[in-house]
Write a structure and sequence with these properties.
Number of helices: 5
Order of helices and strands: HHHHH
Distance between the termini: 34 Å
Strand content: under 5%
Helix content: over 70%
Structural class: mainly alpha
Amino acid sequence: MKTLQTLTLLAATLATGLMAGLFAGFAYSVMPGLGRSSDRTLVEAMQNINKAIINPAFMLPFMGAIPLLVLAAVLAWRGQGRPALPWIIAALVLYLVAFAITSAVNVPLNDQLAKAADPDGPAAGLASARADFEARWVFWNTARALVHTAAFCCLLWGLVVYGAHRLDEIRAGERVVQQAVAQTGVRAG
């Protein structure tokens, strides 16, 4: 049980960290770079990115983090990780908020952009599609990056708390063994 609990918490932390890094990378490099590009470049690049990102390397951590976080919370509640439970629950709530932002705002904007503009179409259509997409998408991407990062930080602290608790358990076990040895009069050699 302890091994499953540890591995689940580590996997949830990794998946959450990957999402925080992805969305943060878009916030501080991809979108500012595309923001300096032409309407045609931004529209075509975002349409292609939105098609390419639907793959197992993205979907597994993005979707998998939720059941991992739920399982980590259940295992912490039922097992030895109760001191870390508030941090795991906070991470789960934050992750769900970020997931909701993605589902309610970013994905619909991506779908709207896919339908609104043909990169080979007239410049006026590209400018309009960009105007309807860019500022709102960038704002909400930054928001979800910050929320995912907060969830990741909660899990990192949860790992610290969980590890400290486990270390305390080990030390307590060592003290019990030392006391038993002292009571029997056996000398360690």
